[in-house]
Structure formats: C-alpha cells, structure tokens
C-alpha cells in the first residue's frame, strides 16, 4: 500500500484496525503461562531463560536530596532491531511503516517501524512466523544503502541497560508490501507525529536519526552558544560528577514495594511510580497468536519538554545531563523536563523548569502531543511531549543543564548512548517545526 496524503493514511490505518482480532486481559503474575517466580529471590522470569525478566535494583548516587533507592526493573540483555526502510516514489522519500499491535498500547494499534523485533523474535525462539523485511537490516542487499545505524538506549528508569539497534536503510529494489504495511510520504509522517498515541516510541527513536532530504533548504547557520569541545567537556564532567552505583538485589527484598497477592501485582507502598502486572494476549496479526507476559504499568502521565530559544541566530534546545537507575552508560542527554509530577512527594523540590513549561501560554507552546511509550513492555504508558518557546528563559542555567543547537543535538543523537530516548522522541518532533531543521 502506498498513500499520498494524511486522509489516505488514516483510511488504511482504520481498515487495518478492523481487519484483526485482539484481546488483552489482566492476569495475576503467578498465573502467567510460561513464566515463573524464582524461589528465594522473587525474580520473575520466562521458563526458557529468554525474552526478559523482572529484577530488583539498588541505585545510589551522590545526591543529598535522593541519595539511594531500590525498585523493580526490567532486564532484557538481548539487543533488538528497530529499522525503517526508505524508498523514493516520484522523487519523494516514503517510509515503510506497519500497523502493529502491542499489548500495552492505549489504542492497541499504533504505527511502528518496518522492523520492530527483539533478538528472540527475529531468531524465532518463539517458533512463530518470520519477521518481515528484517534482511534489509541484517544483510543489506545491492540496492540497499545504510543511512544510520546506532545502538540506542531505552527508558533508563524502567529498563536496566537496555539497548536496541536503530537503523535507517534506503532501497531502490522492489519491495512486496504486506497488507499491514504502508509506504508513508515523509511530509505526511511529519504531520502524524502531532496525532496523540499514533506513532509509537520505536518509530520515533528511529525517525530522530533520519537524514535530511538531499537538497532541502538550509537555514543560514548562526553561532552556537557552546562549541562541541566545550559541550563534551561538560558532559564528561557530569558523568564523573554523578558516579552512581547500582547492583541487582532480590526482587522480594526491594524496600518500599510489595506483592499484592490478591491482585497478583507488585506495587509501590505509596501507590506511586508504577506497578508490575500480568496480561494474557491474543493477536491474530502477530508472529505468535497468543502469549502471556508481565508488564510495567506507570501510575499517571509524565511530562517531557524542551525549552527552545533562538540564541546568536541559531535555534537552541535546553538539555540536561541526566542519570537514571538503568541508564547504560551512567548519564545521557535528556530534555529540559523529564518527570511525572504525580510521583513528587509532598514538599519535594520541583524539577527545574517544570512549572515554567506547564504555565507557558498557548502562543509559546510550539508542540504539544500525547505519545505512548513502548507497548511491548509498558502497559498504557504515555507522556505529554512539549516544545515551549523559551525567549524569557535566562541563558544562565544550573550545572547539569546546557544550551545545544538542534544541529548539535541531532549529531549527538547519531551516536549511541548519548541522547536518551525521551529526548530522541522530542528531537524527531522538533525537526518538523518551522525554523528548527537540523541542517546537517
């Protein structure tokens, strides 16, 4: 299927949603088919030893406000593939996207990359159907050109050291298109990023690395507030300064959390942060038609925001050096604001810039969309993604914050484990805004 405009896309997407049967039902953790709770540690794992497990983690950092805590966390050591296939039709770049069901998606079906598969999936540990189009990314052919390939991190507060391979490949070859896939023009894709809960996280992280169209008009370059050497010096210093320590602990000994035996869930004592729940799934469009699994279900909706400001003739974004419990390499570049306000304890300090972002008048809000997080592991996880004009925000910022140009952040995002997944999502959205092109 090849669509020409947004109306054609939405007609195809609605048709695919009606074409399949899905069922997602809650299930107690102790009753999940194929899963077990390890005696002694309480760890939840698959009986095959593959896929992922729910572990306990202790995290400690030199921060007097919150020096240490323990929590459940998802450990998934294998590296998956998130790949977008690109082809030109009539001189216009089109992206091969799929309508894919994930059990944690709020609206069940969302727009996924051409390939979204764990190592267990594409090596067919589950003995299901083969992953379509994966050979374009594993062994590109004569008509394939690799534009982007990097190991990128995922949510550091919920995953322990999780990475996926993000790839963009352009092809000139003939590609038979399955009915659940669609060639979407790149300009249409930019508009779809403004639709709530439509473009999934795996698509957004890859789109952040999509190269600019050849011949696209470049904005006259201004002057960055900080050059690359100065930014690297600051970022490396932040990694040394934070020096967090983490280690796995028995899940049954994680303080502040308990297992609700009646509901078959793991919950926080104060009802904050997230729950670990179980689901039974049926989906006739997936490689395996039915399965059971644990999922992480966040409590409430988060806020992810960039403050954007023109400085010295160049568009800048305010980034933070952010350490999270599961981050692969200690610290990554995050957005200006990255938090769930509902998790803040009474009297706790508010994160810098949170209130300024939430109080921004409509004329200063450049982007405002609700996006879901990864629906394969997270149940109904969503964040409000914002870009706010920060003309009124001072150039002087706290120690863990710096102004970076869109160009600088885009280039940093092409290297793995530097820009976190929340910032990459926003970067994909920022690059569609007038005056915010990367121009790389």
From TrEMBL:
<dbReference type="InterPro" id="IPR038153">
    <property type="entry name" value="EvaA-like_sf"/>
</dbReference>
<feature type="domain" description="dTDP-4-dehydro-6-deoxy-alpha-D-glucopyranose 2,3-dehydratase">
    <location>
        <begin position="229"/>
        <end position="430"/>
    </location>
</feature>
<feature type="domain" description="dTDP-4-dehydro-6-deoxy-alpha-D-glucopyranose 2,3-dehydratase">
    <location>
        <begin position="8"/>
        <end position="210"/>
    </location>
</feature>
<dbReference type="InterPro" id="IPR005212">
    <property type="entry name" value="EvaA-like"/>
</dbReference>
<dbReference type="Pfam" id="PF03559">
    <property type="entry name" value="Hexose_dehydrat"/>
</dbReference>
<protein>
    <submittedName>
        <fullName>NDP-hexose 2,3-dehydratase family protein</fullName>
    </submittedName>
</protein>
